[in-house]
Automatic annotation (TrEMBL):
Name recorded for this polypeptide: Hydroxyethylthiazole kinase
Enzyme Commission number(s) from the entry: 2.7.1.50
Pathway per the UniProt entry: Cofactor biosynthesis; thiamine diphosphate biosynthesis; 4-methyl-5-(2-phosphoethyl)-thiazole from 5-(2-hydroxyethyl)-4-methylthiazole: step 1/1
Organism for this UniProt entry: Rhodovibrio sodomensis
Domain of life of the organism encoding this protein: Bacteria
Keyword rRNA-binding listed: no
Gene3D superfamilies per the UniProt record, alphabetical: 3.40.1190.20
Keyword Zinc assigned: no
Amino acids binding substrate: 47, 197
Keywords, in A-Z order: ATP-binding, Kinase, Magnesium, Metal-binding, Nucleotide-binding, Thiamine biosynthesis, Transferase
Protein purpose: Catalyzes the phosphorylation of the hydroxyl group of 4-methyl-5-beta-hydroxyethylthiazole (THZ).
């Protein structure tokens, strides 16, 4: 008899039970929120970028997250070293190609990191299209997307096939693909885009969920659903982006299995 398909609550429960350690080399804007989101779901964050300790840290963590939002030559060296070490020791890692498409340097760095075989690539529509090398339709606006997630789905499939990574393209509806299968997640609220680093912190949650060793495609979709449901709950009592950020952390901490399974909108 085959095993039942895990529910989204099963993934969150596993994260809370196993407390995965997630190493993030992330941008300066996202460090605080990213660390707090991981703590809120029951994971443990480590934020380190010194090359002298990269190999040791990547060797013991459950997952690595690399975010190129605030690039610096020294940090790029650390990112590439961490990704290479992750491949060597079998640590799954997430690439968040923030703002790719905006500059040639950012494009070069994102391409080099993609070649180091991330388990998951998560970005908005513009970023996924740019990284996939697809025809430009609008381009990026800083870290904002000028392309809806549905418009980027073909590029996401192409990128997944070329990189052998699961690709998550986020927007009003999120799509997760391994190049063949596609899972759609329709959770979240538009107000989440008004809080800086909200997407970057989501990549950390993806790291926590794939770090527990479950199916990468499904675990990524579950991470998006958890985050989106928490955003919907937070928005019910928020009065603006400041209180939404605070209530988002509370919602992630307090989220129970029954509510999560009832509200999660996952189409696969």
């Amino acid at each position: 008899m085959s095993e039942p398909t895990p529910r989204v609550s099963d993934t969150l429960a596993e994260v809370r039970t196993r407390n995965p350690l997630v190493h993030s080399i992330t941008n300066l804007v996202a460090m605080d929120l990213g660390a707090n989101v991981l703590l809120a779901v029951g994971a443990s964050p480590v934020m380190a970028h010194a090359r002298e300790e990269i190999d040791e840290i990547v060797s013991v963590v459950s997952a690595l997250v690399v975010n190129i939002g605030t690039l610096d030559a020294g940090w790029v060296d650390s990112m590439e070293q961490a990704a290479a070490k992750a491949g060597e020791v079998g640590t799954p890692w997430v690439l968040d190609p923030v703002g790719v498409g905006a500059t040639s340097y950012r494009n070069e760095v994102a391409a080099r990191l993609t070649a180091l075989q991330p388990a998951v690539i998560r970005g908005n529509g513009s970023e996924i299209v740019a990284l996939a090398g697809a025809a430009k339709v609008g381009g990026t606006r800083g870290v904002d997307s000028a392309i809806e997630s549905a418009e980027a789905l073909d590029a996401a499939r192409d990128l997944a096939q070329a990189s052998q990574a699961v690709v998550a393209v986020t927007g009003s509806v999120d799509y997760v693909t391994d190049g063949t299968r596609v899972i759609a997640v329709a959770n979240g609220v538009p107000e989440m885009a008004q809080v800086t680093a909200m997407g970057c912190a989501l990549s950390g949650l993806v790291g926590a969920c794939i770090g527990i060793g479950a199916d990468t495609l499904r675990s990524t979709a579950h991470a998006l659903a958890v985050y989106g449901v928490a955003g919907e709950l937070a928005a019910q009592h928020a009065h603006g982006p400041g209180s939404l950020r605070m209530r988002m952390l509370d919602a992630l901490t307090q989220l129970d299995s029954e509510t999560l399974n009832e509200m999660a909108s996952i189409d696969q």
